[in-house]
Amino acid sequence: MEELASSISADAGNTSGDLITVGFSQVGHESDWRTASTNSVKEAFSQENGFDLQFVDCDNDSEAQLESVRNFIQQQVDYIIIDPIVATGWDTVLTEAQDADIPVIVIDRTIDDSDKYTAWIGTETKNEGLAAGAWLKAYAEAKGIKDLNILVISGTTGSSAQIGRTEGFDQYVESEGWNKLDEQTGDFTQDGGQKVMESYCKSYEGQFNVVVCQNDNEAFGAVDAMKAAGVSYGVDGDVIVISFDACKAGLQMVLDGDINADFQCNPLQGPDCAKIVQELAAGQDVPAKTYMAEPWYAHDDTVKSVSYTNAAGEDVTEDMIVVDQSIVDAGY
Ligand code: GYE
Fold first, then answer.
1. Is the distance from CB of 28 to CB of 34 less than 8 angstroms?
2. Ligand 1 binding pocket, CB closer than 6 Å
3. Burial of 67: CB neighbours in 10 Å, binned 0-12, 13-18, 19+
4. What is the pLDDT of residues 81-140, one digit of tens each?
5. Which of 31, 45, 68, 241 could pair covalently with 217 via S-S, beta carbons 3.0-4.6 A apart?
């Protein structure tokens, strides 16, 4: 991809005045994470910073997303930013962008079936799933819990965030012989999380002691459904709750003990993305991949750190940070 970065001309397309025109095809508005991501990109690509940003909210519709990219190509924007709803189905439209000499920057989720983009900024979601599995293993050992009966509320099917978190966590399900009872999508929404959990509470009444929600908004819905069904959860309850994202409201629930552990995925990718576009505009080389830092959070220090072999094959040990009010206050 480094090669691609320099082979695509950086000064293609129109400019409005001296501004760099940028089209941003965003997933939608399904979660707190998404809102933070949108705000981060909008702030970084402000007019004061030298950009004219065209923003499209694709409302989680993959077809609409492809169309938004085609519209950007037609408008001859200078750069296109894509946060891909799903990981596949991209090569044709990215070829069209390349033919039009418009560099594409991918943020957050990955594109897995094409390399026709200049740079990617995001997180390794498989590591998030692996860290969650390593934490659960250590937590269950520390608490003397022998049987883990797990329900998963997954994210949008086919999104790299869903694929990575599932793959990482499932590695532990397999190696530890845990009982994964079910996995259904809540589409990364609170409503979706609540509906899936309502049905789980009926189908698996009294049979589960772990719920893994692939984002915080699903966890908010799942917790409401458990409360309504009279199921106790969190640090003092019967059901361990694991979540991902660690947005402010999620961290508050960790502090309150409703979520046991929350694995952050940092949405504040706007500044790094704007820097890459500025560097491309100046004819410089840019990194093909930029990884955001991702801390892991828990309610207490039962598990002080997690050790696992990450997606790159490295053995890592990472701290579990105990959430306090200042961490919640600083959250996104
Ligand atoms: O976890 C979820 C959002 O792609 C990493 O999308 C992102 C995910 C995030 O809707 O809250």
1. yes
2. 30-31, 33-34, 108-109, 161, 188, 215, 244-245, 265
3. middle
4. 999 999 999 999 999 999 999 999 999 999 999 999 999 999 999 999 999 999 999 999
5. 31
